[in-house]
Please model this.
Amino acid sequence: MSATQSAAGAGVEARPSTRSEPGRPGSAAAALAAAVLGFFVITLDVSGVNIALPAVRDELGGSMSGIQWVADAYTLMFAALMLSAGALSDAVGARRAYGWGLGVFTLASLACGAAPTLGTLMAARVVQGSAAAVMVPASLALIRQAFPDPAARARGIALWTVGGAVAIAAGPVLGGLLTAEWSWRAVFCLNAPAGLAGFLALLRAARSPRHPAAFDLPGQLTAVFALAALTFAVIEGGHDGLTGTVLAAAGVAVFSGAGFVAVEARRRTPMLPLELFRRRGVSVPVIAGFALNAAFYGGVFVLSLFFQEQRGQSALSAGLMFVPMAAITAVFNYLSPRAVARYGPRTVVVVGLLTGALGCGGLLTVDTGTPAWPTALLMIPLGVGGSLAMPALTSLMLDSVAAERAGTAAALLNTSRQTGGALSIAVFGALLAGGFAPGMQESLLLAACLLAATALGAAALLPRR
Model:
């Protein structure tokens, strides 16, 4: 693929920008710091909110499907808008797009904290997810432009993923502590100081070049309709059965998905150039990223409810259960690039996927009588698997495309990841509706099979080095 094509996949020549700015001393470090802080608040919001969901239901009311929508309203918009957000990042410059996203995300977080009803909270979560969709591809594009050397870029990506790992570790504990001592509302307000710190770092980062990019409205609309309708059908179908509304939503999902593929195949300036999938360095990370997020975030959702609603633990106690997994995850996030340099991405990705599958399999032995420490230890492989594989997958994805396509590549990878997280919460929540204990077993078994199958596919498709 030509390096003169825009990062949005528009097929337009990228003219040299007159608005870029030479790097200043410390600007690369500032860009990395801003990117890490942004990813931190995005992940902190997810991990902390999962712990707070029972408290949200207690105060605002609603059913299991209601709290599923509190989680999925965020991840749905996150996934659906990611590809257009990648085009926005390339068109206006990663630094400016990131600043916009961070500002809106911080304000939306405060709106979540002040929400008087469940519907208002869901609406604010939609805005949060939309802002997060802008932030993630822009943050990775910032790292891509700040570190043109592949080795330095790999280290930067590893630190970026460590920011998410630290948030995973801090989120359940802080979410549980804030929920127990104050209110679930404080969990959302926690994003404000981190957002402010990210702004201060961004001010010192160099300006980003702009590349021509076209907004693909038909592609964006069909993507939103397909994901929203599919999520609705899974969540509501799991609780109400195959009603006429659920079947209609499923039909809209299929029709919109087919429409998205048709639109992208025919447009001169598609939001998602379908030829990207011909590269194994793109297709494998997309599939593996989906599987890893489906297993991890679906597992966290189920376990958060299990600890509080089945074992009777407090929000703080439930949050502490995730600490061993998250702490070790942060270490393996940092070690992953070194493992890739020594063994190659194929080995690291396959080992990571299989480790996650074994973690889900081990959790099948957990029930309400299992002591806390063995349960916490059995959760560790699930986190380790993702922390090993994701930095390798991200580097593989960015190294497989031209620099001008960094925004689109980052958006595509994270779209697949967030879609995996949203659909797993929908599917696992539907399984829980049939009975918590069997639903939890079915959810973990499904996650284990998905990761194992993906590992076999990655082993077959990726080169040995």
